[in-house]
Amino acid sequence: MKNQKGFSLIELLIVVAIILIIAAIAVPNLLKSKMAANEASAAASERTISTANVTYSSTYNNGFAQTLVSLGPPAAGAATASTSADLIDSVLAGASAANTAKSGYFFTYVPSGAAPATGYSSVGYPAGPGSSGTSAFCIDQTNVLYKDPAPTAAPAPAAGAQCNSIATLLPM
Fold this sequence. Notes:
With 172 residues, this protein is an alpha+beta fold. Helices cover 35% and strands 16% of the residues. It has a five-stranded antiparallel β-sheet, with helices on one face. Strand 1 (105-112) and strand 2 form a beta hairpin. The longest helix is centred in the first third of the chain and has 52 residues, at 9-60.
């Protein structure tokens, strides 16, 4: 009898097949977990926008912010002002710009009323529906967070519209 060393080709193929089966089971769960994390981040970002607006309104006594950029940090070396209140991070402040997303979500922000704004609506929607998230989130000056579990398109709030006027949104 020969003294054999190593694995046979069949044994190696069986190990590779087992690894592929485990990967086929794990990858979809990983993607679902990532989407759930993105959605949780979007909901938290909406709450951050709401809290920042309350702080902005009481600090500057100038109604609510006119844009997300107004809630963001100032340019390097500049002092904070009502046009750059430094209440939200720069990524969230820029998430309304084209091709800039925070955790897979874009955010639209619309103030209501003439300046100073007496209200606002902010909607967070997935950058890649079905891959970065499946739900849209909306918050307004009432500080109630709403969720649309299956948005058909990127919702954009109309000027002066409140989240509870959008029929597909459910309070969370």
